Amino acid sequence: MFQINERIQWVGKIDWELRKFHGDEYSTHRGSSYNSYLIQDEKVALIDTVWRPFSKEYVEELKKTIDLNRIDYVIANHGEIDHSGALPELMKAIPNVPIYCTKNAVKSLKGQYHEDWNFVTVKTGDTLDLGKGQLVFIEAPLLHWPDSMFTYYTKDAILFSNDAFGQHFASEKMYNDLVDQAELYQEATKYYANILTPFSSLVTRKIHEVLGLKVPVEMICPSHGIMWRDNPTQIVEKYLEWAGQYQENQITVLYDTMWDATRRMAEEIAAGIKAVDATVEIKLFNVATSDKNDVITEVFKSKMIVAGSSTINKGILSGLAADLEIIKGLQFKNKKAAAFGSYGWSGESPKQIQKELKEAGFEVWDETLGVLWNPDEEARETCRKFGRQLAEWSKTS
Ligand code: FEO
Question: Which of 75, 154, 172, 390 has a Cα-to-Cα distance from 107 of 20 to 30 A?
Fold first, then answer.
């Protein structure tokens, strides 16, 4: 338990061990937390719970903080199991307590737990009086599930935003002003890039809707990671920036290589880019040996990506093929791309990569670059020239 103020306690779980989330879909190098909040006003409300493996210890710990029979309302901002996973254990003790959630959350909660709890469905603008303050519900569909919502507590001007504004970041410091800022923003950016990118237009719309309410925001308390108390709207402004077809002055070269020829091409292309534009930050990743979510974060930050693979069985090596599949799903906007690769016999991969990049919504350089066998000096100069052309193109709008 962690005391936020005289009325509100954090009653979640810091998961220091977590290294993979969503199955194998998201790497969590810095662990995570499942944030649950207890508001003890004249009425008592519990906002979200924790992931299922921690359900028993969560309820045991919660009992040390409050007699469970004093809980008047449970608020389920989102039905995903990392926040609702302790509901079955909790509701065994308080089966009749109403669970406030969206209509879609009734579907996701019933679909997962097959329990007919006392659901009370809420819509944007609905309120629940706790005494000194009210809870105001704001539906946030597709941020990031159709069932997601935010809950705002008027007494302390706190926005409980669930996954939005969160980070997979275990820290006992709890607040944004107490942690390493580079680590915090690394995790917040990775979270946005890998989870929220496809919903960017909804992010912009929802933020403007919330800002339009013109209510004060003293704190933003998400369901993962640290809480924003120092200039809390900094993360809202960042989200608006990230949702707005974000890019930095960065070009990222992704390659998958069998016997190093494609790696050598990647390095020569990078040298060509650098020869034209000394200001651009160039990063190279062998995608077969790199963490895919870290790679996606770098793609998110890039104005251009250059993707290459050796040809295998008339196709693309599996490391790059997998990353391209993720990139397609995330629907990045406002980014350029080009394709290359080495080959020994048939050499189909650059054209196939180019096709994937087009389907992913990138503006794609017309020509692809293929090099037969290991690049000799002439081929290396061809790669550098390709890089120089891409660098010139990257400066155009
Ligand atoms: Fe969408 Fe943290 O669950």
Answer: 154
Neighbours of 334 (CB within 10 A): 13
The CA 123 to ligand 1 mean position distance, Å, reads 20
Which is the catalytic residue, given 73, 139, 187, 224? 224
Active-site residue, from 15, 41, 48, 80: 80
User: For residue 319, is pLDDT > 90?
Assistant: yes
Residue 191 falls in the annotated catalytic set: yes
For the cut 90, the answer to whether the pLDDT of residue 397 exceeds it is no
Close Cβ partners of 4 (under 8 Å, ≥ 6 residues apart): 10, 37, 219, 221, 227
Three-state DSSP at 87 gives: helix
Cβ of 168 below 6 Å from ligand 1: no
Ligand 1 pocket member 224 (CB < 6 A): yes
82 is catalytic: yes
**Atom 3 of ligand 1, residue of closest alpha carbon:** 80
pLDDT exceeds 90 at position 82: yes
The residue-averaged pLDDT of 117-129 equals 98
| pLDDT band of 17, cuts 50, 70, 90 | very high
Cβ(238)–Cβ(300) under 8 Å? no
Q: Which domains does the chain have, with CATH numbers?
A: 2-243 (3.60.15.10), 251-392 (3.40.50.360)
**Overall residue count recorded for the chain in this entry:** 397
**Got the DSSP string for 353-387?**
HHHHHHHTT-EE-S--EEEESS--HHHHHHHHHHH
Which ligand 1 atom sits closest to the C-alpha of 148? 1
Q: How confident is the model at residue 239 (pLDDT cuts 50, 70, 90)?
A: very high
Q: Of ligand 1's atoms, which has the minimum distance to the CA of residue 166?
A: 2
Determine whether 78 is an active site residue.
Answer: yes
